[in-house]
Amino acid sequence: MAKQATRQDHRHDIDFSELMDVAGLQTKCREALGTKDRPLLESRAALLPILRQASVDGREKARELLSQDGSGLRCARRISWIQDQLICVLNETITESLYPEGREIAVAATGGYGRGTLAPGSDIDLLFLLPEKNSDAMRKAVEFLLYLLWDMGFKVGHATRTVEECIRLSKTDMTIRTAILECRPICGSGALVNQLMSRFDLEVVAGTGPEFVAAKLAERDQRHKKAGDTRYLVEPNVKEGKGGLRDLHTLFWIAKYYYRVRETTELVKLGVLSREEARSFEKADDFLWAVRCQMHFLTGKAEERLSFDIQRDIAASLGYNARPGLSSVERFMKHYFLVAKNVGDLTRILCAALEDQQAKAAPGLTQRVISRFTKRLHKIAGSVEFVEDRGRITLADPGVFKRDPVSLIRFFHVADLTGLELHPDALKSITRSLSLIDSALREDDEANRLFLSILTSRRDPGLMLRRMNEAGVLGRFIPEFGKVVAMMQFNMYHHYTVDEHLIRSVDALSEIDHGRAADMHPLANKLMPTIEERAALYVAVLIHDIAKGRQEDHSIAGARIARKLCPRLGLNAKQTELVVWLVEQHLIMSMTAQTRDLHDRKTIADFAEKVRSLDRLKLLLVLTICDIRAVGPGVWNGWKGQLLRTLYYETELRLSGGFSEASGKERAKVAEEDLANALSDWSQQDREALVKLHYQPYLLSVPVEDQVRHAGFIRETDKAGKPLATMVRTDSFRAITEITVLAPDHPRLLSIIAGACAAAGANIADAQIFTTSDGRALDTIHINREFAVDDDEMRRGGTIGRMIEDVLAGKKRLPEVIAIRAKAKKNKNKAFDIPPSGAISNGLSNKFTVVEVECLDRTGLLAEITAALADLSLDIQSARITTFGEKVIDTFYVTDLVGHKVTNENRQGNIITRLKAVMAEQEDELQEAMPDGIVAPQPAAADGANVLPRKSKVGV
């Protein structure tokens, strides 16, 4: 019995004896049942601990061997063998002691298990083949075996059928057909399995190769689309993702079905794969299995997503070490993505081979598939190297690249000009000709001219660059780009590898260039036609992160690469200097907009001094938008767009000389008049009282239409006699929801509001914080939008507003509600290590001390930091809250309690020390000093007596 179970593909080179004592296991099972008849439940109970312990011990031994030899395929085959033995021993015990008729049944493995490979947590796919004349006892034997496997904790996918039923169902169901394709006998009646496979080959497989290929490729495409249609997601699905194990399995299914082979090595003999490509297949398979097995062992379940919280451990288990510029986990993930890319190469090569065989499409396939095998070759105007083959560009003859290596670049240029798809046979030739891309080709003027034309194409440059990258051409032609191919950054902010991010940046630029982004980027869409140095912009966008993974600042190193690369691509000296500047400064606009107070004149003056010209400002705006857009889904939003537009317009005024030099007092006087005029339907007395409520910073920084809304809100709250109130408004374009809070002023008010928002699950994007002359705070909090429908978002905003009111009124204790939220929220940030850091500067603002902190994000962090600042007797005048994935950068503009900058060095040191201590606290260790909530006092007298206003608190 055990000998029969070991008859599997690819497993002859593994010694399984150390995994399990099969004879001893058989003996223990016989002894457990004994000779007397037992109730079925007692029999299962007797067998269960024996089989479960054998399974646990065998898998633990497989894990030890994986750590020793590192082979994923060997591990998967060992676990498959262990599972075979458990089923064989169990089946033999059942047929000997309980259901003798069960000997006529065949137990077969299907799916991945049928290939003789199994991950530690994988489902067990079984086919129970019954003879045509079967009995209830046979079905009871199957049922007993299944119940024991379920009791052991296995997830079993199973089918109980006759051979005739299998053949009939496989003709109409592609999933069943694929499962039977992988069918392998485990124990029982081998004759039934042989009969099934013989009839399957003759009645199902024969003549249906093209139909099966088309169905499997369509199924693969649908799976890729569902998973994000890229193999460069930084948390890939090892099994189902693009470039993962399922893609390799699909290749093997196609090869096995179409070419009627059992092993990939047979494809070499048929000329489908070269020996090197076959080795690449085996290496990819082995590596992916190693990753998957380690994931299952580590998590104790069938985890298929290589998430951040396990990547470090998997990298350590597989023996990766850090190198200058790259951590161990980043080196591991780069290897992973290179393997995923190889899987894509193998897919193209196999598809090319299938077309070389001139496969005939079966009835029922789409006209597109049929036409692939019926149309003739056509010449392409202006090209002798390439021809059109059924709507795709391919080589005129096999020697094109060898005669003229420039054709490796020209191929993609012609494809771009003609809009033709790429023939897989041509891509196979490109992959096998990459060694022709040498220093001579890189310095060739024609090759560089063609590449620049591809990059700046008016059609779809991102698509062609991606195809060049997939084929390996882009990384060979620009070696610096090759160094970031498949490179991931171990953080939650960047969703893609560096090369995919750069190409997606070009996609975003092309969208703006075509005028398709007017709704999302109205300013950039308006400016793009006025940009003269279009080629320089495209080059800068493509290479802005090209120096990632180096020890030095990637912006500085990238600028040095740009200075060398641009002349090679044909850019003149002026264009080169522009690209160098853009690459070196590509982060400055984003960081200024998101982490600085844009209402502080010093912010605009400092930024304008670095930009210096309107042309640079335009280019930098577009580059910044493309960079953020390409980070990942959901990273760009309307609020970031608004911040960038505000920074652009303020800087444009400064650079063009239109920046107002009128005093703040004069401008505030005009603003008072504007507000009074806007309230023309109010009584004179009410207008004057309202205008007197506001200090200069409010009048100068809040648009008059918002001032009018606030005026109505204040009047309604006062009429209702409420000590505090909230008002909600949604803004779909900026993707934010605005909550305005009117409450008695309090030193910890910002901390309490921030805590209430955290408790309600709202992320603060920005806030405008002001004090009125009667001692109240008028704070407008902007939170990230969650729902697309305004009604849903308004209900959410109302819930958050009520949470703020309850906390301010003392109805809810802040530490408790935050702790509940933190406990309920799964914290993926624990996978990351960001040492808390802080800095204090008096040079970033003329009026305020700027405190900047950086640390790992967590629920309630903003509330804790602002509470600490209040404890330190600091008055927060404005703040910016910026989150980059797992990392948060908070910037606070502060003064002491009498409105002066903090200049004492000892006090500055104490501030940073205290803030670092707060940032280092764990989620469940909220500060005892955090306020529980305050009972709102009645508003102070209208003249503001004995009230120390917080003055301007603009912008979180």
From TrEMBL:
GO process annotations (BP): regulation of nitrogen utilization
Recorded superkingdom: Bacteria
InterPro entries membership: ACT-like_dom_sf, ACT_dom, HD/PDEase_dom, HD_domain, NT_sf, PII_UdlTrfase/GS_AdlTrfase, Polymerase_NTP_transf_dom, UTase/UR
SMART domains to which the protein is assigned, alphabetical: HDc
Record's keyword terms, sorted: Hydrolase, Magnesium, Multifunctional enzyme, Nucleotidyltransferase, Repeat, Transferase
GO MF assignments: [protein-PII] uridylyltransferase activity; phosphoric diester hydrolase activity
Region (Uridylyltransferase): 1-381
Activity regulation text: Uridylyltransferase (UTase) activity is inhibited by glutamine, while glutamine activates uridylyl-removing (UR) activity.
UniProt domain HD: residue ranges: 498-614
Entry similarity comment: Belongs to the GlnD family.
NCBIfam families with a match to the protein in the record: PRK05092.1, UTase_glnD
Protein name as catalogued: Bifunctional uridylyltransferase/uridylyl-removing enzyme
Organism: Rhizobium soli
